Amino acid sequence: MNVLLAEDDTMLGASMERGLRMAGFSVAWVKDGLRAQAALQAQTYDLLLLDIGLPGQDGLQLLHWLRAEHLSLPVLVVSARDAVGDRVAGLNLGADDYLTKPFDLDELVARMHALARRVAGRAPSELQLGRLVIRPMRRETLLDNQPVALATREFDLLHALMERPGHVFSREQLENRLYGEHEELSSNAIEVHVHHLRRKLGSAWIRNVRGVGYKLVEAG
After folding, report:
1. CB atoms < 10 A from the CB of 62, how many?
2. How many other CB atoms are found less than 10 A from the CB of residue 81?
3. What are the tens digits of pLDDT across the range 49-74?
4. What letter does residue 218 receive in the DSSP assignment?
5. What is the DSSP code (8-state) at residue 80?
6. CA-based Rg of the chain, rounded to a whole angstrom?
7. Can you tell me the distance from the alpha carbon of 209 to that of 215, in angstroms, rounded to the nearest whole number?
8. d(C-alpha 165, C-alpha 102), whole Å
9. 3-state SS class at 160
10. Of 29, 118, 140, 202, whose CB neighbour count within 10 A is largest?
């Protein structure tokens, strides 16, 4: 699971990052709300761990922006603010769960897994772009209503691109989505998967933005 951690407390953030990596998560850590927003605009994450009292832009402002942009990223608020009003405000703005500090790392990990299961249960059963359809839960791909056989990484790459059609993903972002932190991969792994997808779907579906990355567009 690729996680964005927004926490300005250096000691706590370092401890959370270390513990979550040991638990098998891929973690990107930022220390203020503006950097968190920039990270969310630049990359796709599976979950946001959000402190409320962030400098630059506080967590509630970031949460409001996130939902106003119709981004369905699951959010687990981790905050020292334990008043009922604070919890209600966070949940009403679109947080999926709220955990107060101090907390046990095992409980945090358990809540993250539970949240991931809930989100998987409400994920769209089908994504479509023109003549191209994928069904994530069944791991099925259809082009012109005909099944297309994709390898595991090919499907995962197509799924990532189809979640945000037209958005340019860098190679690093796609590597983070497809591979775990400690998995070995060749320097041209993404290029190889793109080549295979183009061969199976047609070259017009995936555009190479020179020096930036790849995006999915509707082929004529």
Report:
1. 25
2. 18
3. 999 989 989 888 998 898 888 777 88
4. -
5. S
6. 19
7. 7
8. 40
9. helix
10. 29
The SS3 assignment for 177 reads helix
Report the distance separating Cα 30 and Cα 48, nearest Å.
Answer: 11
Taking alpha carbons only, the member of 178, 200, 204 closest to residue 189 is 178
Question: Looking at residue 172, what is its pLDDT?
Answer: 84
Q: What is the DSSP string of 110-140?
A: HHHHHHHHHHHHHS-S-EEETTEEEETTTTE
With 0-12 CB in 10 A as exposed, 13-18 as middle and 19+ as buried, what is 132? buried
What is the spatial distance between Cα 209 and Cα 84, in angstroms, rounded to a whole number?
A: 48
State the sign of the Cα–Cα–Cα–Cα dihedral 87, 91, 92, 94: positive
Give the pTM.
0.60
- In angstroms, rounded to a whole number, what is the distance separating the alpha carbons of residues 112 and 32? 21
